[in-house]
Specification:
Elements lengths: L7 E3 L3 H13 L4 E6 L6 H5 L2 E6 L10 H11 L3 E3 L9 H9 L3 E2 L4 H8 L1 H10 L15 H11 L3 E5 L9 E3 L2 H19 L4 E5 L5 E9 L5 E8 L3 E2 L2 E2 L1 E4 L6 H17 L4 E9 L5 E7 L6 H8 L3 H9 L15 E8 L11 E2 L2 E3 L6 E5 L6 E2 L6 E9 L2 H13 L2 E3 L5 H9 L1 H5 L6 H11 L3
Parallel strand pairs: 1-2, 1-4, 2-3, 4-5
Antiparallel strand pairs: 6-7, 6-8, 9-10, 9-14, 11-12, 13-16, 14-15, 16-21, 17-20, 18-22, 19-21
Helix pairs in contact: 4-5, 7-8, 12-13
The protein binds ligand MV4.
Length: about 450
């Protein structure tokens, strides 16, 4: 059979560029790597069939420069582009320009990207699709007075969120009326600075929810499925540290209910390709739509481990016009955990770029390492500090924790600091082990650590 595409250009770097390249290779699709001058020695460049240098280290002049990416696609004859995550993955304009150039975008339509990219509009879309949302504003707020009236209506605490945001920037939790006006102003200013859009909306704030997200897929024939959930409550400064699937909180009934809600929303917007629907799950079992991500995510491997599917391969197949061949409602097989291995100082959480003087990756049963790192590779200081992801799969959660502790011990990195020691402490934390993890987990974890007798 002819390959799905003539040539796929991978508009990304690091471990995800390598992950996409692996999927293309298995499907017999030739690949083009693009790279900045800082990434010449990166593995995605080494393994790609062709590579194009697209500019200096600064992302704005390389991985974020649409004209350079289009030029790279044109000179290599690529007929499709996979954006990975981050960079231009949720840039509707890039998707439009590619369409104009007759290059297939491996992702959802520009209209859906735009609609879900505005978080306040996404909330309204979820409500219209019959998916529960928290009490709050229907549209972006127009004034501090409107915010105050709305907050009184839903009751404190409330949370202000940037419409153009996501991931915590321009976000403020407000516990009392007297703080609302000033926090509204600072949230809006922060959003304007960060996203060029100062719009802010408001929701009732849940104090101890779980962050649970559903993997969805749609094909070009209108079929939409979900592939279960990921538990992502272990975050620090709105950066996920560790993810798992299934969530220890979900019963098969709740999984069916939340999965059906996720599918309903994706169907409502005629979603095509891979997407993620984020929910907050309250202690009483109620769940609420939070955001939709219109890309493949960093944590997709835990879904792959418990479903046995190759999500990147599915993205390529769908973009090439093939139908989905799996159904919703797969029971998760065993348990999977992912630890993000970041080049950063374990206590200060500041970046720790530099040369990997030793880089021994673990292996053995149920262990997967997604990384672009190797011995003597230099982690450049210009990009995200993720150097790899360690993923384990085992029969159940306790065995997955034990397997992850073993794999972390056998993951030897010298030359830079990493999050490996932090993960070892988290996996031994009694609250983590109990599975009773909420968005406040890391705050409580650091308190327990500081109280520990040494
Ligand atoms: C919330 C919330 C509670 N109630 N929204 C949104 C962006 C995300 N990174 C954090 N967000 C939250 N939105 C309402 N209405 C709590 C959080 C939140 C959180 C969510 C997941 C994991 C860690 C978190 C830490 C603080 C706040």
């Amino acid at each position: 059979m002819a390959p799905l595409f003539k040539k796929v250009l991978i508009a990304n770097r690091g471990e995800i560029a390598l992950r996409i390249l692996q999927a293309c290779r298995e499907l017999g699709i030739p690949t083009v790597a693009v790279h900045s001058t800082a990434d010449r020695e990166s593995l995605h460049v080494v393994y790609a069939d062709e590579d194009v240098c697209i500019g200096p280290p600064a992302s704005n002049e390389s991985y974020l420069d649409i004209s350079r990416l289009i030029a790279a696609a044109e000179i290599t004859g690529a007929d499709a582009v996979h954006p990975g995550y981050g960079f231009l993955a949720e840039n509707a304009h890039f998707a439009e320009v590619l369409a104009e150039c007759n290059i297939k975008w491996i992702g959802p339509s520009p209209d859906v990207i735009r609609r879900m990219g505005d978080k306040s509009q996404a909330r309204e879309t979820a409500r219209a699709a019959g998916v529960p949302v928290l009490p709050g504003s229907q549209e972006a707020l127009k004034s501090p007075d409107e915010a105050l009236a709305m907050a009184r209506d839903v009751g404190f605490p409330v949370i202000l969120k940037a419409s153009a945001g996501g991931g915590g920037r321009g976000m403020r939790i407000v516990h009392a009326e007297e703080n609302l006006e000033s926090m509204y102003r600072t949230a809006s200013e922060e959003a304007l600075k960060a996203f060029g859009d100062g719009s802010v909306y408001l929701e009732k704030y849940l104090t101890a929810p779980r962050h649970i997200e559903f993997q969805v897929f749609g094909d070009s024939f209108g079929k939409v499925i979900h592939i279960g959930e990921r538990e992502c409550s272990v975050q620090r400064r709105h950066q996920k540290l560790l993810e798992e699937s299934p969530s220890p909180a979900l019963t098969p009934e709740l999984r069916r209910e939340m999965g059906a809600a996720a599918v309903r929303l994706a169907e409502y917007v005629n979603y095509e390709n891979a997407g993620t629907i984020e929910f907050l799950l309250d202690e009483d079992g109620s769940f609420y739509f939070m955001e939709m991500n219109t890309r493949i995510q960093v944590e997709h491997p835990v879904t792959e481990m418990v479903s046995g599917l190759d999500l990147v391969r599915m993205q390529l197949e769908i973009a090439a016009g093939q139908p989905l061949t799996v159904e919703s409602g797969l029971e998760p097989r065993g348990h999977s955990i992912e630890c993000r291995i970041n080049a950063e100082h374990p206590e200060k959480f500041t970046p720790s770029p530099g040369m990997l003087k030793t880089f021994h990756v673990p292996g053995g049963p149920g262990v997967r390492v997604d990384t672009h790192g190797y011995e003597d590779y230099v982690v450049p200081p210009y990009y995200d500090s993720l150097v790899g992801k360690l993923i384990v799969h085992a029969a159940n959660r306790p065995e997955a924790i034990a397997r992850m502790l073993r794999a972390l011990e056998f993951f030897v990195v010298e030359g830079i600091h990493t999050t490996i020691p932090l993960h070892q402490k988290i996996l031994r934390d009694p609250v983590f082990v109990s599975g009773n993890i909420t968005t406040g987990f890391m705050t409580g974890f650091f308190q327990r650590q500081s109280e520990k007798p040494e």
